[in-house]
Write a structure and sequence with these properties.
With 502 residues, the protein is of the alpha+beta class. The protein is built from 15 helices and 23 strands. It folds into two domains: 160 residues, Alpha-Beta Plaits (2-Layer Sandwich), CATH 3.30.70.1920; 287 residues, BirA Bifunctional Protein, domain 2 (2-Layer Sandwich), CATH 3.30.930. The longest helix is centred in the C-terminal third of the chain and has 21 residues. Bound molecules: zinc ion.
Length: 502
């Protein structure tokens, strides 16, 4: 790995008269630029290859191998120069920029797929004879200090290492008894026919009428009575409007699936700003959408896609103590949103859906056993409801393949289990729950600290209750007299759909 860096350090005054001091500082810097490189690998350290002064600017070129990267060497050099020239001549370092940074990574086999990935990166990445050449131009001090170069290298290296993801078949680890349900229809079609759901102008959203809602609430109550209560989970209410800076700390969302969220742009709280908009609307009776776009501010929020975002944020502000954990909470306070675009599908893939989100935090062992207990209780509920189920191991999207999830014999090493129910009408399966242990990944990205620096793990389990309804109806049908006793108690009497239109 080779680095070449062209940088400019701007000082508070003319440098010509202090050139000899700069020269001696450069000499003094030599061992500093090698510090940290292994004894026999000094070639991997950094050196200044050229420098000159013009006015208040010191232009400097650095080269290095992998051990002291040129941009890190630049920071060391700038600190030393700032101290020396400040002490002797009262000259302060005002700005640091790099007009160019070139990185050559040793040659590796590059597939067509990988090459295409490079072309989409926001920097110039070329695959040449010498290897992969990355070139970054006009780096600011914030870029240099913010480790942009290192991160870009990791992204490129990752692209090399990454084998194109195959859609792995879920590895089924447990399954319930095979049940023979006579109902064979698609519950989505029946629900529409019976007006249990009514179409809403936007695709992937539905108005859920009385019988559907009563069934959903009854299923929610059963989950809370049989899973949350016995395991000591308490109800909380989390915001559903999530500021972007909170979202940014959620691994795998903004940096993984930014295309799968709704972004919210607040308007200025100023009636004047809407003057044109209101007038045009009154005059034309058409929505002046361009006008609206002009008025709105930049997006500042997303509509919660995960439902557990606020949980971690609470602890980012202070320290936790393992002795006060585990903490167990659940949220059933609203909709969850995913922008599915053209991927919406009946009642199983919608833009807004119901979910009960269980969140917990504790020692590694506690976190794993809580997750596993939630799974066991969930399975008991499914059996009570007379539903055919299976449990499989999945790799969550925020974990890279191979990170965790490889050893399916050891629950501690499994990041995610998915619980699925059978859909007799299509001889398929529907995922209704996802049971996650994040290890320390979320705690790290939210900078959750423990008083004695002990490891804190988090986990979350999402009960996709909208899908529980679909699975229930797919297996049991729409006639309440054929439903299991547990649920019949909860919905009796099932209200009819209030027909408003003939
Ligand atoms: Zn979650």
């Amino acid at each position: 790995m080779r680095f070449e860096l062209k940088a400019k350090l701007t000082f508070s005054g003319e440098l010509k008269q202090v050139e000899t001091d700069i020269e001696s500082t450069m000499e003094k810097a030599k061992p500093l630029l090698c510090k940290g490189a292994p004894k026999d690998k000094e070639a991997g350290a950094a050196r200044v290859v050229r420098w000159r002064v013009t006015g208040r600017d010191l232009e400097v070129e650095l080269e290095s191998g992998r051990h002291v990267r040129a941009h890190d060497a630049l920071l060391r050099l700038a600190k030393l120069l700032g101290a020396e020239l400040g002490k002797k001549h009262k000259l302060g370092l005002r700005e640091m920029t790099a007009s160019e940074c070139r990185v050559v990574l040793p040659s590796i086999e590059v597939s067509k797929h990988t090459r295409a990935k490079f072309e989409r990166l926001p920097y110039d990445v070329k695959v040449g004879k010498a290897g992969v050449e990355i070139s970054l131009k006009n780096l600011t001090e914030a870029d240099i200090r913010g480790r942009v170069v290192d991160r870009l290298i990791s992204m490129v290296e990752e692209a090399f290492a990454h084998v194109p993801a195959r859609v792995a078949e879920p590895k089924v680890v447990r399954r319930g008894p095979k049940l023979d349900h006579p109902f064979r229809e698609d519950p989505f079609e029946v629900a529409k026919r019976l007006s249990w759901v009514i179409e809403f102008p936007a695709r992937g959203q539905w108005i859920y009428t009385e019988p559907y809602t009563k069934l959903l609430r009854a299923l929610e109550d059963i989950i809370i009575e049989n899973v949350a209560r016995p395991l000591g989970f308490e109800e909380v209410m989390f915001p559903k409007l999530i500021p972007l800076e909170v979202m940014q700390r959620m691994p795998g969302y903004l940096d993984g699936v930014p295309e799968g969220m709704y972004y919210v742009s607040p308007p200025p709280r100023d009636p004047e700003a809407f003057l044109n908009f209101k007038q045009k609307l009154r005059l034309t009776k058409r929505l002046p959408i361009h006008e609206l776009r002009r008025i709105l501010k930049e997006p500042a929020y997303v509509l919660a896609p995960a439902q557990c975002e606020p949980f971690y944020e609470v602890f980012a502000l202070g320290r936790v103590r393992l002795e006060n954990l585990p903490l167990k909470q659940f949220d059933r306070s609203g909709w969850t949103y995913r922008w599915e675009g053209g991927g919406v599908e009946g009642l199983v893939r919608t833009q807004e859906f119901r979910r009960i989100e269980f969140v917990f935090m504790g020692t590694p062992d506690d976190t794993v056993s809580i997750r596993d207990e939630i799974i066991n209780k969930s399975i008991e509920v499914l059996e009570k409801l007379g539903l055919e189920w299976r449990l499989s191991v999945a790799t969550p999207f925020y974990m890279r393949e191979g990170d965790v999830g490889a050893d399916i014999g050891d629950s501690k090493k499994v990041a995610t289990y998915d619980l699925e129910v059978a859909l007799p009408y299509e001889k398929g399966w529907l995922e209704i729950g996802s049971y996650n242990v994040h290890q320390a990944k979320f705690a790290k990205s939210f900078k959750i600290k423990e008083v004695k620096d002990r490891e804190v793990w988090t986990g979350c389990c999402g009960f996709g209750t909208s899908r529980w309804v679909v699975g229930f109806l797919a297996q049991h049908g729409f006639d309440p007299s054929k439903w299991p006793e547990t649920i019949r108690k909860g919905v009796q009497p099932l209200p009819p759909t209030h027909k408003v239109v003939e």
